[in-house]
TrEMBL record:
Keywords linked to the UniProt accession: Membrane, Signal, Transmembrane, Transmembrane helix
Protein name per UniProt: VPLPA-CTERM protein sorting domain-containing protein
Keyword Cell membrane set for record: no
Pfam families named in the record: PEP-CTERM (PF07589)
Residue ranges constituting the Ice-binding protein C-terminal domain according to the UniProt record: 159-183
Lineage: Bacteria, Pseudomonadati, Pseudomonadota, Alphaproteobacteria, Rhodobacterales
TM regions (residue ranges): 160-180
Presence of keyword Cytoplasm: no
InterPro entries to which the protein is assigned, alphabetical: Ice-binding_C, VPLPA-CTERM
Top-level taxon: Bacteria
Signal peptide annotation: 1-27
Length: 186
């Protein structure tokens, strides 16, 4: 049974990939402001309950073009399927990924049904986070391009710039330590 299901999924992925290659000529890079919908009460960005760094960003359209490259909003990057797999199965709160969240009426927001949050490599893996599953539930496998909910994001770690005077301070402290050591040895 498992082997038959795995074979079916592999055949489905192959068919999907061949279609993806044919559509590659029409691929586009879509800036965050051109795909990200920020009109719900969460600003179109819901933090995961199982991973503080993972977020679900809502799409303006509910049709996913697997050939397109979606650009993440500033401060985020698109999550990979591997990162999504690592985040699920935890003991997070039993909240839905986005179903009835942020003012949505079930799967509906602004008159469109939205089910699947995609990963940066969903065009290959066919994996998605289902809006109606609990946040800790396993990923969903589908080649459906309709009912697109948006993208799964990872918050980038904020980089703290080193103050220009810090290396000078470290050099001065080292010099003081060396001078104290020489004085003690004498």
């Amino acid at each position: 049974m498992y082997l038959k299901r795995a074979l079916t999924l592999n055949v489905m992925a192959l068919i999907f990939a061949l279609g993806f290659l044919n559509d590659r000529a029409e691929a586009a890079t879509i800036a965050a402001n051109d795909w990200w919908l920020q009109t719900d009460s969460l600003g179109g960005l819901r933090q995961s309950t199982v991973n503080d760094q993972m977020f679900y960003a809502v799409s303006q359209s509910n049709v996913w073009n697997p050939g397109d490259t979606y650009v993440a909003p500033t401060g985020y990057r698109l999550a990979t399927t591997a990162e999504g797999l690592a985040a699920v199965g935890g003991s997070g709160l039993p909240e839905f990924t986005y179903y009835y969240q942020g003012g949505w009426s079930g799967y509906l927001w602004e008159g469109l049904a939205r089910y699947y949050f995609r990963f940066s490599d969903s065009n290959v893996t066919l994996k998605a986070k289902h809006a109606g599953n609990h946040d800790s539930a396993p990923l969903f496998t589908t080649g459906d391009v309709n009912n697109f909910a948006g993208m799964v994001l990872i918050a980038e770690a904020a980089t703290v710039p080193v103050p220009a005077a810090l290396p000078l301070l470290m050099l001065a402290l080292g010099g003081l330590g060396f001078a104290a050591r020489r004085r003690k040895a004498a």
